[in-house]
Structures are given as structure tokens and as C-alpha cells.
Sequence to fold (176 residues):
Amino acid sequence: MPVLKTVISDPPIDPTTYEVDLIESVKKHGWQTTSVGADDNGDPAFSYTTGFWLTLEQPEVVVFDFPPQLSHDVFGQMFRRARAGDHFAVGEPVEGILAGEVVYLLPVPRHTATQYLQSSDWFYKSAEFPVLQLVWADRSGRFPWDSGCETSLMRLQPNLWGNSWTERLKGRLKGS
Fold:
């Protein structure tokens, strides 16, 4: 991997308290979780990582509608496993991240990633960095691309790929 230019190697002149805390967290722990609450327009809450790409050469991760502590715990589990050498396959079922549940990790296009992962975009000084969306199932184990998936799940977990889940994922997912 080429040397990344980040705010650690090229600090901002007058960082905010939040920015200083983000830099220090990535220096100390290798990553940080940022959580954003739901808004008045009906957009769901979401959380994402900053530092996975710098520290582990693993994509940053975004997840929707998890409480902040759960997001942090799930990301921490992923970080520890990746640091131990685990590789999370894109578009394949992943177990052991979310207590007994299967999840999928799906790539997020750059133009969409920067809309959601604003602190990560700032941290990496607007350079390219990969992002995966952690997608979880409804109470019946159905994912947004499965027939019969709860409509509420699809509202809480937007498709960052664009287009419909089924059109974009047809033939790309294994195990679904």
C-alpha cells in the first residue's frame, strides 16, 4: 500500500476538539467510531470507522441503525479479528461479527462514502479509501434483497450501492 497522507502526517493548522480527539484515538487505538443520529428528514442513524484503512489496510465500515455502543463493539470485534489476520470476504456471508447473526459486507462507491463518512474523508485528506457497508438481516433472517424482507429494515438500512438491492446484487452474493 502506498504511504497514506492523513491528518496524522499532515495535521490541520487549527483543529477542533473533535478533530484532535479523532486523531488521538486513531493514534492510540488504531481506529475510532463516529456515530451520527437520525435526522428530521427520516434518515436513519449510522456509525462508521476511521482508521481501519491506515492501521490494518482494511476498508472502513459503515452500519445503519445500530445503537452507538453496539456499533463500537461490532467494529472493535472486526478490528481485533482483522488485526489477528482474519479477512472479511465482500459479498459473502460473514459470521462471528454480530452475536450469532450472519451479516454481509458490501462495497460503497466513493461518491456515496464521502457523503456518510465525512470524518474519515477529512482524516484521509479526501484521498481514496475503501468502504464497506455492514448489512444485517431482519428478525426472520432475511436481507434487504430477499423476498419478504421487512420493509422497515430497508428504511433503516439504506442501500449505499444505488439502484435496487436485487438489481445491483443479482449473481454477486454467495449464500443468499
